[in-house]
Amino acid sequence: MVNETESYWSMRAKNEYLYKGEKLYTITAAPYYVKRREIIIKKLKNIITKYDCRRIVDVGCGDGEYLLKICDENKKYHGIDISTEMLKEAVKNCKDHNNISFELSERGTQKFHDYDMAYAVAVLAHVSDETMENLLKNIYDGMEDKGKICICEQTAPYEFSGNGWKRRSFETYRDALEKQGFKCMIHETFRIDFGIHRKLFERHIAKKILSEKSRIECNKNRVYLFLSRLCVFLSFKRLYHNKLNGWGYIFITAEK
Questions:
Q1: Which of 98, 124, 159, 161 is the most exposed place for a label (fewest CB within 10 A)?
Q2: What pLDDT, on a 0 to 100 scale, did the predictor assign at position 220?
Q3: CATH of the domain at 171
Q4: Beta strand ranges found along the chain (DSSP E)
Q5: What is the DSSP annotation of 46-72?
Q6: In whole angstroms, what is the distance from residue 211 CA to residue 218 CA?
Q7: How many domains does the chain have?
């Protein structure tokens, strides 16, 4: 089942880890999310530079960290999210940048129009097919001609759901974009693997220490934190860019 409600994400913002420096993210494997963020920020900056994008929307901005990392004082940025608590964190994080604005919205931006780039990172995995379709339509409608959209999601060769997320295939995301009129230009696949952390900690240790429900506040558990970091330290980090048989991350860039 996917989670789209404001209350769910506000609870995550307040109780999980307060979005302070994602290296302390331990609800799942911290290294995956930290490394993913580094990769995506680099890709977003490349797209912005290549196409000289100047009005940029972060769809599902959360704590505003991506906006903060890609911010250029000569451009305009706008973050939207369904959670008031997430936006409170975002406003605090970006308080020194007058060219970043925020909006509480479930359907896409209503206050920031004629943008030439939009991106969504690990957002569509948490919404239903219907909501994804509506969101992409609204992004398309508010975007300038020749504007770019970038999405990054975890993918699988077949569809299945977990606690608050849904895995879809690359083809599903591509078709959803093209249905609204976007033309897919580039798609890149990659996978991040911290072997010992994944095989030992995630599969065995984490499940024995904490129940699924209590992982929401797992960063308050010192034993959990120590063992997670130890397994990361012992792991040999690998980053794959080749074909992954449907498993891994997909980064799609499309044009209106």
A1: 98
A2: 62
A3: 3.40.50.150
A4: 55-59, 76-81, 100-104, 115-121, 143-155, 160-161, 166-167, 183-194, 237-240, 248-255
A5: HHHHHTT--EEEEET-TTSHHHHHH--
A6: 10
A7: 1
CB 128 within 8 A of CB 235: no
Q: Token pair 């219907």 is at which residue?
A: 130
132 located within any domain:
yes
Domain assignment of residue 231, yes or no: no
Q: Which residues contact 49 (CB under 8 A, 6 or more apart)?
A: none
Dump pLDDT digits (tens) for 161-212.
877 789 999 999 999 999 999 999 999 888 877 677 767 777 777 777 666 5
The label of the residue with tokens 């943008």 reads 115
Q: Which residue has the tokens 């980053």?
A: 239
**1 part of a folded domain:** no
Q: Quote the pTM value.
A: 0.82
Residue 204 lies in a domain: no
| Residue corresponding to tokens 């706008």 | 78
CB atoms under 10 Å from CB of 175, counted, come to: 12
How far apart CA 121 and CA 33 sit, in angstroms, is 11
Is residue 97 within 8 Å of residue 27, measured between CB atoms? no
For residues 152 and 253, what is the distance between their CA atoms, to the nearest angstrom? 9
